Amino acid sequence: MPEPVGATSAPLIEAKALTKRFGDLVAVDGIDFTVDRGEVFGFLGPNGAGKTTAMRMIACVSPITDGELRVLGMSPRTDGPAIRARLGVVPQEDNLDTELTVWDNLVIYGRYFGLPMAQIRDRATELLHFARLDDRRTSRVDPLSGGMKRRLIIARSLINRPELVLLDEPTTGLDPQARHLLWERLYRLKREGVTLVLTTHYMDEAEQLCDRLVIMDRGRIVAGGSPRQLIDRYCTREVVELRFELPEQQDAALAPLAAFGDRVEPLGDRVLLYTSHGDEALARVTGDGIRPESVLVRRASLEDVFLTLTGRTLDE
Amino acid sequence: MSDAAPATSRSPFDTLAAAVPMLRVAEREARLWRRFWRSSALTLVLMPLMFLGAMGLGLGGLVDENTGSVGGVDYLAFVAPGILAASAMQGAAGQSLWPVMGGMKWIRTFHGAAATPLRPGDVFGGWILWIGAREAMNATIFVAVATLLGAVPSPWGVLAVPAAALTGLAFAAPLSAYSAVQDSDLGFPVIMRVGIVPLFLFSGTFFPVAQLPAWLQPVAWVSPLWHGVELCRGATTGSLTLASVGHVAYLGACIAVGCWFGVRNFASRLAP
What is the pTM of this model? Predict the structure, then answer.
């Protein structure tokens, strides 16, 4: 990816007190963040947290209500078309042109960017290969699988050789195999120096892909850092998950459990016991005569960070 | 683009499209049309020609036997420009209802376009531009065939092509603006039945507006189709007058108002 002359360590995206209101509804409530060249940056949060709205402001398809935003050194207020010319956008809802073939989807999109035909043909051939859709060139879009459609949208978003690609929930609704193929393609983009910004409500996706991320809840950023940093800062190293046969048994166990870990988090169907040494804690729990129906000792994840910060799970 | 190789050639269209972004949107429609023009030609060109045959030649024979002429010309020459303008209206209206909802809500292709350097106004403009171009193509075929049938007595008839395109646009712009902000297509059949069909019948298309009851005549004058029919008729019968300028102005005003709302409404949906 060619770097513009004079490109330094200036952030690609810089937001200060960025706010979006729709009437009385505050979708994004004064958030600050920066995205640096070459990194994978994530917005993690449940549905309705304001991730998509934040992305749409960055993509210059939603005017900002308040605060400051600079993308690629320009202002979305005045330089929308110039910014969009250098962005790739993968929207949450598929908007592929179902009346056209796979190939024509790429060609028409290239034309929207004002690219000459010869250049589009070269790039489209390359991108079909990148998306592993070489043999679907003349196929219509409708019969493609969900994973193929997603890959085609990603290929389409690269037709203008963007420096910055925005991906809104890139793998939502895909089966695990399709997700892993998509992640692998995104890694490759990252290796090529493309800056990626993505939203997700999957904590494993955020952990896998993001160098740095912010956790959003109700329009605000509640925490930010690398996945590791966030876990270290807000969680213990390990978590013991205990499931009980009856709700009454779970309720009765809460008070005694508090003695065996740093923190106890009761959920609807299980209890989480935060501790630095899971197996040790579990041995002491069972030694105390507490008999859960099943147990699981695991490393703490971003899901736990979110739970700690908001008191809710990501899919609530 | 920083990496645009000097070796890649730019066609004259590329240069034009770089200057006028809405042409890129029209190009998408043109490419699609190139694939499906046969089936659309069947309905959009054959239908008006069948009307021309039935009304102009069939019914016209009866009319001419009884009245001699309608508005100074035989019935075939009278009705041909009416059918031309009415077809432009129908074609443009059809393109401005469901397909606009498709681009906005169902397939969301307009949103895809709005994520590129194109602005919402470009997306709207390109869409309208294409409808105008398509109606001009259909009108060209119609006028050519009508001329062969002897339905176009004046060489000024070539001006009926832009006149028909203008008529189509006078409907395409406001209707596309309306469709862009609808949440469902429930109102569309109503527009066709209560709006388009009555206009089709009572805008001086098949008989002079003077035949209408006196109280209905002012209604016809408000109809953009009446102005379109009068304009097309002025061209094909070689009777363009100062009033024709008024018709152009009226159609132009409908287009201007439609475009103002169109740009606004497309922006409110594509960049809220």
Answer: 0.89
